[in-house]
Design goal:
The chain has about 140 residues and is an alpha+beta fold. Helix content is about 20%, strand content about 15%. The strands form 2 sheets. The protein has a 3-stranded antiparallel beta sheet with strand order 2-1-3, with no helix packed on it. It has a two-stranded antiparallel sheet with strand order 4-5. The two termini are about 25 Å apart.
């Protein structure tokens, strides 16, 4: 799906490389991945359940989601935080795309680094091309 005409994203991947460890899905995102059998995505997340237990998202059922307090991206082999988003795909020298674009986390769908006061990211290459003229939220 091409970006809207007024979206200045340069697809440089910088935000995904920098904020990768902080990408957290909603319970609704995890539900979709469970229903679609997307263990390729679920394996990168752990759920923190009521009572403090940690559960790999690949072990969750849809019924478990009511007890999930939060989710975090972690390396499935080591449990460590990820330095970059594992779904980021380099497609050219300076161009990156999301490998799970159609089902990516809600926070990624709504991330706009050129919106001041919400998701502003001053290292965004699109923002630099706009001479750091950010938009204000509506």
């Amino acid at each position: 799906m091409p970006p809207p005409e007024d979206e200045p994203c340069e697809q440089c991947g910088l935000c995904c490389r920098i904020f990768g460890p902080g990408i957290t899905p909603t319970a609704a995102n995890v539900y979709v991945w469970i229903e679609q059998g997307r263990t390729d995505i679920l394996r990168w997340y752990i759920a923190f359940m009521e009572g403090g237990t940690q559960v790999p998202c690949t072990s969750l059922t849809a019924e478990d989601l009511g007890s999930a307090v939060s989710f975090e991206m972690r390396n499935p082999e080591t449990g460590d935080y990820m330095p970059v988003c594992p779904f980021l795909r380099r497609v050219a020298k300076n161009r990156y795309l999301c490998g799970i674009h159609l089902v990516k986390p809600e926070m990624c769908c709504h991330y706009e680094p050129w919106i001041w006061g919400e998701t502003y990211f001053n290292k965004c290459t699109a923002l630099k091309k706009m001479d750091n003229r950010c938009r204000w939220p509506l």
